[in-house]
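Two proteins were folded this term; both appear here.
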Amino acid sequence: MSLYTAETRRLGKRRFTKFLLGGVILVLIAIAVGMFFTNEKNTPATIAAAQAKADSEFQAAVRQSATDKQTCVAAQGTPDASNWPTNCDDVYQPQTSDFQAAWYMPATFDFREQFPNMITALAAIVAVAAFVIGASFVGAEWASGGMMNLLLWRPRRLQVLSTKIGALLSLLTGFTIVLMAAWTGVFALIANLRGSLDTMTSGAWQSIVLMELRGLALVLVAGAVGFGLASIGRHTAVAMGVAVGVVVLLQFGLYIVLAMANVRFAEVVLATSWATAWMDKTVTITDWNSCNFSGNNGCEPNTLDLTWHAAGGGLIALLVVVVGIAMWTMRSRDIT
């Protein structure tokens, strides 16, 4: 049996891997079920009901406006006059445009508008699971002494480590592709039953596929980084500790300090900003403390656009640094 086949089987048969991936599937099922039951298809009956509700609210507002105007007129010359406009014709008069039927429609799932958020949710959940699986896969080998035993059989260190990470990435790739295909099919069905697929064009489907590919890349980088950190520290806890430290100290701690110091675009230190830029192609960070005044638009704050190109470069740099250090330590440090 080849080393790659053995590592793939070992990873796939680990109970931790099965439980975690099973938990991911259960969470995603819960999300899909929730979206199904909280959305409703816009049938002629629901549209008519919404229009009737809008008309009813409009008529009620008209009656209330007439009552308010009469009260305003009666209040003139009394102490209550201060509660009303000087000219009672200025009392608010409802307009039909203020009561649109769309505002009274039940929630409906528009595939083109809402499914990208579902892709991001899927990628985020699977990426977290990939990080933990990658860290535990190699971390358990180091902690149990299995890595040392394996190197007695196959003494080529870099080949062993690269084969392990290759097995990990293969499993994550297959799992994520199947899951994303099922995810797309499920939400297409939800849109068909509880929303609309009418606005989907070939270009829109292409955009969906490209976004799913970016989600796949995010999952693979997360798994490889978790694997690399655990390999560097030779324990799963090292990767988890680094993750917690980065999130708690570097992310929120540094962000709070920068925000208190009124540093421009402090959100740029948050991993969520970079992940959002990667998945959504761009994210705009606003400096609310700045003001660019113009006669037409008034005071407008400065903005900074993070693009998917910059976010992709950051992901590649993170991957190269962490996995590169893991390979270097595997080659140079003693195996004990």
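Next, the second protein.
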Amino acid sequence: MYPFIRLFKDMARARRAPRMGFFDTHISHHLCMPWDLDMWNELNNGRTLTLYDLGRIPMAERMGLLDVLKRERWGLTVAGSVVRYRRRVRGFDRIEMQTRVLGWDRRFTYIEQSMWNARDECTSQLVVRTALTDRNGIVTTDRVATAIGVDMSEAPVLPDWVARWIEAEDMRPWPPHRTVPA
């Protein structure tokens, strides 16, 4: 089940927190609960992706983006992600999550997130390609910039490793190969 109670708690905190700039880092703290675990008593890899929502959505609130989404009747979607797992997170471990915008292109915004354990070791890192949508599809980032009042005319150069991931995604065939049963 989706962690709605934790999301509501984190959103309440975000509403009370100071507004943040577009390139500031949102920091949140989480506890790995028993329902987040797999059969090896470790944070489930799929649940990790769900918990990363608890960093992105409150960050969007602190930036004022959620007000814009309501006003414009836009949606927020994930259009791709790449994750690296490096350290175990076990039941009742405390983690710090860091979430920040890396940059954007014409259609997508790229966000980096990472989880850190009590020993200050990075347990996982996620880069997510996000988009805002309306009834016609993806809202271009220049329209988003105008709506939120951010000068996006000088997009920061994305790190080389992110640019190469984007290139790899562009080469990936879609739809994927499907084997038809005989």
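Residues 4 and 130 are 21 Å apart (CA to CA). The helical segments are 4-16, 45-63, 65-72, 141-148, 160-171. These notes refer to the second protein only.
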